[in-house]
Amino acid sequence: MAEEPYAGRLVRLRKSLWERAMDALLVAVPENRYYLSGYGAVDSQLTESSGYLLITASQQFLLTDFRYEQEAAHEARDYQLAIYSNGLAETLTELFAELSVIRLGLEPHFLTFTRYREIEAALRKSRPEAEVTSAEEMVERQRLIKEPGEIEAIKRSLAVTEMALANVWEQLRPGRTEKEMAWQIECLIRETGAEAVSFPPIVASGPNAALPHAVPTQRRIAAGDAVILDLGTKLNHYCSDMTRTWIAGAPSAKLREIYRVVREAQLAAQDFIAAGKDSVAVDGVARDLIRRAGYEDQFGHGLGHGVGLAVHEKPGLRKQKGELLQENMVVTIEPGIYLPGYGGVRLENMVRITTTGCELLNRQDLFMTVS
């Protein structure tokens, strides 16, 4: 990561505050908090936050409690600390009055209803005429375009994911259980020094591979099974996401067919994607190929999604709610075909969008030969 990118990010955020006529923004989403300040404390649950950012046109505060004071002071050096001992609401009331906040932006897509009402009451207590307004995805949209340091961080995260998958790939064989292989993936990722997996690994064999988000079970891999392995790493706050499908022994004619179709759909989308294209059109390239092969109803999820500080973020590549793609967005391309009671295939790469196409971020192949 480039040194201290936070000042530039705050400049861009304050421009958005001015355009939306907001006096201040209260940042609650942990990824947004880190993006704007460098403060990386982890929230263990939605109802227990490790802190908030309060940003105005000229000042920025990090609100937290005693448990995080030293961490906050070290990591968010450009922020004034507001340490609360009697809860968030009392400190917010004081700050809102001191800063003359009349119109406050909140992130309603993350806050619980109770916390939202608590913040709203604190604002009204400081100034009865004040109001809250939605700043939903305000920071997330700023995060859409990845800076050079972010792209390098994502590549390093993906390299760890690929290392783990390549290692597990060599150990796959009939008789191994899904849970056993999922635990090996998680151990390998953590042993490299990554802070976490970016999501619980998916290992889905045989008929379980027909479940796009299957939870690993004690089922043992059997000869002829397709095994979907979906895994990711969180390294230095940045995520990665990768899927391959391994086949135990000689694949059936049906498995060969759907594997070929999924791979062709993935390559077609990778060849088509570029800055200036609509995300719906990119999804459509893969979806049309799968439809022509007769599997339209067996590809029920979007083609891909953005990856960065969160493993699932904007933009989405799906058949509705299009987004104009821009240079340096990082997305997955992951078509799949799922046959209930039989099995399935999903293949997932990560790419950086460029003006002329895309840069494939994956370096490991690990595709099966099925022709």
Report on the structure:
This protein is an alpha+beta fold and 371 residues long. The chain has ten helices and 19 strands. The strands form six sheets. The chain has a six-stranded mixed sheet, with helices on both faces. The relative contact order is 0.11.
Structure keywords:
371 residues; elongated
What's the gist of this structure?
The protein has 371 residues and is α+β, with helices and mostly antiparallel strands.
DSSP helical segment count:
10
| Count of DSSP strands | 19
Question: Quick one: biggest sheet?
Answer: 6 strands, mixed
Low-confidence stretches: none
| Overall form | elongated
Secondary-structure blueprint of this entry?
Blueprint: H1 6-19, E1 24-27, H2 30-37, E2 52-56, E3 60-64, H3 69-75, E4 80-83, H4 88-99, E5 103-106, H5 113-126, E6 131-134, H6 138-142, H7 148-171, H8 178-191, E7 196-197, E8 202-205, E9 226-231, E10 233-235, E11 238-239, E12 242-247, H9 253-272, H10 279-292, E13 304-306, E14 313-317, E15 330-333, E16 336-339, E17 343-346, E18 349-353, E19 358-360
Helix pairs in contact: 4-5, 7-8, 9-10
